[in-house]
Amino acid sequence: MTLKVLVCFLAGLGAGLGTGFAGMSAAAVISPMLITFLGLPAYEAVGVALASDVLASAVSAYTYGKNRNLDVRNGLVMMAAVLLFTLVGSWTASRVPNATMGGFSVFMTLLLGIRFILRPVMTTKESMAAVSARKRAVQSVVCGAGVGFICGFVGAGGGMMMLLLLTGVLGYELKTAVGTSVFIMAFTALTGALSHFAIGGVPDLWCLGLCVVFTLLWARVAALLANRASAAALNRATGVVLTVLGAAILAVRLFR
């Protein structure tokens, strides 16, 4: 029991910081931890991770929204495209059973972390406002379709891809990008968690409860700190968190 609490605490710590600072999916951190150190079946571990992601992303989105760092309108447009093309990606993956992109989300986390350290996002809300609403909506659909398809095909990397596209393609400033990302992830994680529980049944309730609580706690702390930080400080913090988490997840995978 002590080992279970410790593993869930560390998993929740990493997932919560990743979610609150960078909009990272908790599944990328929690799943490999539960599988490697507690021996949970992979499907059950992913279900626990997605359930943990729901409240963590929701409370992070609330915190970012309260500080006016959330684009709800375009977030809803992007979310619709993500959910639709996740189904398309899943169907495509089922047609190509031998295709695999293992480690995709791990390397994306590492590279994105290094990118934020070396090339910080210094876009302002004024420059964001200069983009027409029509162009932003079209960009949201296209980017959401790309994210959804890859998530459905690969099964990972959604939060990282959204953050990359929101900052690099749609031109969001970092806080708004993270806020919008966690807003979308709250709904996608809820959909994924419900489907996992409906298909796989009720998971280990201790792991579920502990991971949900710890991830929620640290996501709230990270979101509060992120919204008070300057753009430069947030870029550095996000880069460090992503780089450390990417390296840690890679080490866990190698250990497994």
Can you give me a brief rundown of this structure?
By secondary structure, the chain is an all-alpha fold. It contains eleven helices and no strands.
The share of residues in extended strands comes to: under 5%
Shape: globular
Major sheet description? none
Approximately how much helix is present in the residues?
Answer: over 70%
Q: Extract low-pLDDT stretches.
A: 97-102
Radius of gyration: 17 Å
Listing every helix as H and every strand as E from the N terminus to the C terminus, the arrangement reads HHHHHHHHHHH
* Total helical segments: 11
How far is the N terminus from the C terminus? 21 Å
The average pLDDT score comes to 81
Number of strands: 0
Tally of structural domains: 1
Classification by helices and strands: mainly alpha
Mind explaining what this structure looks like?
There is one protein chain. Helix 1 packs parallel to helix 10 and helix 5 packs antiparallel against helix 11. The longest helix has 27 residues. This protein is globular. The protein has one domain. It is mostly helical. About 2% of the residues have low confidence. Helix content is 82%, strand content 0%. The relative contact order is 0.24.
Search tags:
single chain, 256 residues, mainly alpha, 11 helices
Strand and helix layout:
Elements: H1 2-22, H2 27-38, H3 42-66, H4 72-95, H5 104-118, H6 125-129, H7 133-154, H8 158-168, H9 174-200, H10 205-228, H11 231-255
Helix pairs in contact: 1-2, 1-3, 1-10, 1-11, 2-3, 2-11, 3-9, 3-10, 4-7, 4-9, 5-8, 5-11, 7-8, 8-9
